[in-house]
Each structure stands twice: as C-alpha cells, then as structure tokens.
Design brief:
homodimer, alpha+beta, oxygen-dependent coproporphyrinogen oxidase, 10 strands
C-alpha cells in the first residue's frame, strides 16, 4: 500500500465520480484543470457549471509533497521533515433549493518518519431539511461504516456535528454526516489496507448516495422565496467555509492553490440584515433542526 | 473628554451620517435596530436596502463595556481588567458597478488602568478603478490628515495598504485610504481632544467624500457583464472580511453581535472557478491596479 498506489486510486476515483455526476445531471460536463505546485506535486481540479441539477460543482484531486513548513509544524503539530498528502475533495451546489448541497473529502497523509493517517468525511446541507431524507443519508453512511468498524458511525457522526458547526450563528451547517481524521492502524483496530478500502468505499458510493438525495427533491416546484432562502443558506455555507473550516483556512494561510480551495464556494450567495423567516414556515422549521445536532436515524 | 462625551458624539454622528446618506441616495431610508449586550452596553445598528444608489448599507454605533475576557487578553494583549469601547462602523454596497463600495470606522477604547486609544480608517473599493477618482479620494483624506498632523497621511496611507490586502489573492481590496490604531497622546504629539476631533472630522466628511465618488459613477450605463464583475468583486470583499479582517474575526470569535458585524457583507456575491477577465479589458486594468499598492495622489 504505497503512497503512489493510494494517490493513483484516488485519481481514478475522481474520474469515475465525475462521470457518475455527469450521468446523474444529464447535461453537466466537467472541465479538467491540471496544476503544479512549485514545492512538489500538483493536482487536477475538475469543475462544472450550469448543468441541469448542478449549478456549480468541483471534484478536486491533489497529490503534493515537500518539506514540512513552519506553518505546518505550528498549526498541525507535525513531527517530521517531509510530507506527502493526497486526496479528493468534492462540493456540489445544486440549483434547486430542494436539492441539498453535498461535500465529501477523503485524504491520506504521511510523514518521512513513517507515520501516516487517513482523514475525510461526507456531509449534507439541505436548504430545506426533510427528516426522512436526512435519515436515509445517515443510514447509507452507517451501512458503509458498519462494514468496517462497529464504532465508526457512532464516533464519526458526532465528530461531523462538532466540525460542521457555525458558532457565530449557533447553527449546524446542515444535517451532518461523518467526519474522521488521524485514522491509522494505531488509532483503530484496522489495517492500512482496510482503512484505505473504507475511504474508497465512501468515495465509490458518493454518486449513488447523492443521486438518491437529488431524486427526492429535483422535481419539486420552486418559488422565488425559496430561491431567496437557498441563497441565504449559501451565505451561511460561505461563512462556515471562510471563517471556521480548518481545511480552508489552513490551505489559504499555508499558500495552497486558492482557486482549488475556494472551489467550495457557491456560485451566488445573499446576505440580508437580520433576516428571520415567518413563524411556522418551512424555513423556520429548517432553522429549528439546525439549532442542535439531531439523531436523524431514529427520527 | 469623558467616555460618555465621546460615545454621545459618535451616536449623534451616526444620525447625521444616515440623514446625509438618505439625502444623497434620494430614496434610501435607514431602519434603526437597538440591541443590548448582556455583559454591558449595547448599540444601534442602522441599515438600509434597495435605495436608488445604495443596494445595502449599514451605519452601526455601539458603546460596550465589561470585564476584559480571556480572548481579549490573548488576542489584543490587553493589560487591564475592565474595558469600554465605542465607535461607528459603516459599509455601503452600491448597486451600480461604477460606484465604489466604501467603508469607514472610528472608534475609542479605554481600559480601567487609565490607558486609551483611538482607531479607525476609511477605504474605498471601486469595482472599476478610475485613477483620477482614487486620487480625488486620497486628496480629500490627506487634506483632513494634514489639518491634524503632518505625518498622519504619510503613515496611515501605507497602513491601509497593508491592512486591506488579500494575501490569498495577492490583491489589494481596493484603492485603500487611511488606517490607524492605538492613537493616543503617548503615540502622537496631539492631545486627546485633538485626536477625537480628528476622528469626528473624518466622520463628518464621510458623506461629502462618498457623494463625490457616487456622482462620478452613478450615471454611467451598466452592462450585464459589468454587473457580473461587480458581483465577483463583492465575492472578494466577502473573502477579505471573513478570512482576513481582524475586526470581523475578533468580533465573531469573542461573541460579538453577529448581525452587526456581518452587516459589512454585500447583498449578493458571485464565485466562478478561476475567472480571468479578457486581455486589455477594463476588468483586467482594475486587477492590474490591485496587484500592488499605488501612490494615487501622484498618478
């Protein structure tokens, strides 16, 4: 299980995910943008815009390496001189307010001192929360988790709730999902191969999991007020990613490739001063669900 | 020169600035939102939307006090147990791409150990940079600075260039202006009264300075491409404020009032993956000006 094997398989998964998303969308077509990093390595950022379902989407692959910088030592507490990191990152902003935003990331990191770990996660951000749809999403994730480790879902679900939280709004970003970091043989009872298989299983199921969610919402009629609400929720997504998301902040402050990092931002976002939805509206119901982490599977 | 006098005068300035902006706009009307802070003090946030010139604007006053928290001690290095802070903050997002975004802030801070200082600044963010208009803006600021201190402009202009810089884009936020902090009798040769007069002079001239800029652009015809560019530039404004602006970050992380802090965000912003303007276009010219700080007055 060399780093080359891992990054090659991630790169193949990027290609198959893009084909799957194109098929799901019907008209979307991903454009590839290959880039190099002066300190070592590079990536391929695939993006699409103005499809039938996907208004703006990105599926990014990268495999970078080089000396461990001062910023990395300080912010990540890394105990090595050289690193290698590879992964896939996905964010999809759909045009319909009834189709959720989705994010997925799987990544592998190793240091020249022999330590390595996997990290990643997948989370869903509906503009309008439908508890049954959130439950379906979580069931799909739990089923994958359970194949690998009896405690993965139990540990990684609350980790996502903690990670995808917007403290200055006291809101969850969405209905959560799973999040994990520093997964290795030492920190789990699994082999490196099993942990890599787990990451690949998540990535391989991404299109199918998202397609289910898309189909549940895509044919619903859309009002102007719902579009306005979608854009306000996209504003919250911007706030989370730019103010709180550790990955985004680390990338921007450590000299990462800005366009690939900010690929996660929506095509368009709105802010209105102190907006409050009407009492008992669907918008208010969604805010209520976002006010604290929910145990979706038993709802 | 008590803290009560200072905050009362700031509050009066907020009212006169709002009347001045309403007159300038023609149809805009500010709504007042008064709030209290549980730890002590409060504020009045005045906002307007969908005027003739101003698409979204806020003029916020606050006067807050209380114990110096751990976050304040760590992030601001404060050497006291209790603080008092008062100020006015303005951000105006105009609808025309040919009218610049403007920001102004004047503030006063004191600690129970007897130390105090003034801070603030004013800066302009044109969607399309016109060097003559930037020069006019800087001449107006320099004229005010020169009335108070021969070195204010010389020191505060580059301070704004440093402060309003977007490192991850390697771009200036706009054409800059002036920025100052920790201004006191000790750090300048001026009395407390003179420093307060300087802050008031900036605030009193705000509407006149902005009106000049508005009149230079408001009647220019607007194409769809220019609106799209305006929204991309607004996206950069969001990136600066949420990723880099020390005031915004401190406010959000120290439990400030989110809606008043994020009043600075535009009504709508756009992101497109890796957008580059056409060669020799007005958009490209603007990016060229933003690539390094300019000495606008001699241009």
């Amino acid at each position: 299980m060399t780093k080359e094997t891992i990054s090659n398989e991630f790169k193949l998964l990027q290609t198959s995910i893009c084909s799957g998303l194109e098929k799901m969308d019907g008209t979307a077509s991903f454009q590839s943008d290959t880039w190099e990093r002066s300190e070592g390595g590079g990536g391929r950022t695939n993006t699409t815009a103005n499809g039938t379902i996907i208004e703006k989407g990105g599926v990014a692959f990268s495999a970078v390496h080089g000396p461990v910088s001062q910023v990395m030592k300080q912010q990540l507490g890394l105990d090595g001189d050289a690193f290698f990191a590879t992964g896939i990152s996905i964010v999809i902003h759909p045009s319909s307010p009834h189709v959720p935003i989705i994010h997925m990331n799987v990544r592998y990191f190793e240091l020249d001192n022999g330590t390595y770990w996997f990290g990643g996660g997948i989370d869903l951000t509906p503009h309008y929360i439908v508890p049954e749809n959130a439950a379906l999403f979580h069931k799909r994730l739990k089923a994958i988790c359970d194949q690998y480790h009896a405690q993965f879902y139990e540990k990684q679900k609350p980790w996502a709730d903690t990670y995808f939280h917007i403290p200055h709004r006291n809101e969850s970003r969405g209905v959560g999902g799973i999040f994990f970091d520093h997964l290795s043989e030492d920190s789990s009872s699994l082999t490196k191969k099993e942990l890599f298989d787990y990451c690949k299983e998540l990535a391989s199921n991404f299109v199918s999991i998202y397609s289910e969610q898309v189909h549940l919402g895509k044919d619903k009629s859309v009002s102007e007020e719902q579009v306005r609400w979608r854009d306000l929720r996209r504003g919250r997504y911007v706030e989370f990613n730019l103010v709180h998301d550790k990955g985004t902040k680390f990338g921007l402050f450590s000299g990462g490739r800005t366009e690939s990092i900010l690929m996660s931002l929506p095509p368009l976002a709105n802010w209105h001063y102190d907006y409050h939805p009407k009492a008992n509206s669907d918008e208010e119901t969604t805010l209520r669900y976002l006010s604290s982490p929910q145990n979706w599977i038993v709802i």
